[in-house]
Amino acid sequence: MNKPFRPAAGSSLRQRLIEDMTLRRFGEKTQRDYLRIVSRFAAFLGRSPDHATPEDIRRFQIEQREAGMPAPAMNSHVAGLRFFFTTKIDRPDLSHKLY
Questions:
Q1: Whole-number average pLDDT of the chain
Q2: What is the value of pTM for the model shown?
Q3: Cβ atoms within 10 Å of 6's Cβ, excluding its own
Q4: What is the C-alpha separation between 41 and 43, in angstroms, rounded?
Q5: What is the pLDDT of residue 4?
Q6: DSSP label at 89?
Q7: 41 with 52: CB under 8 angstroms?
Q8: For residues 71 and 65, is the Cβ–Cβ distance under 8 A?
Q9: Beta strands in the chain (DSSP E)
Q10: Spatial CB neighbours of 68, under 8 Å, sequence gap ≥ 6
């Protein structure tokens, strides 16, 4: 089992994600959801999500599907991670692996 990754409340990556969502006028619920999604992905990885690989994304999505995550929730995860990969860490190649 992977050890949960929990970025510190004031970590720069988390703070920059919040700032970017605020600049884009994301609603409070969307911000909370996206932070939860990225945190869940980081916990799955056991490391910072900015070091993710395409295989990590694939394994995460398989795990979520096998856990019974419904399609609307999967879509939210894709949106949150896509925003993170394209906006925060400038890795659009990883966002193309999400489905």
A1: 90
A2: 0.84
A3: 11
A4: 5
A5: 44
A6: S
A7: yes
A8: no
A9: none
A10: none
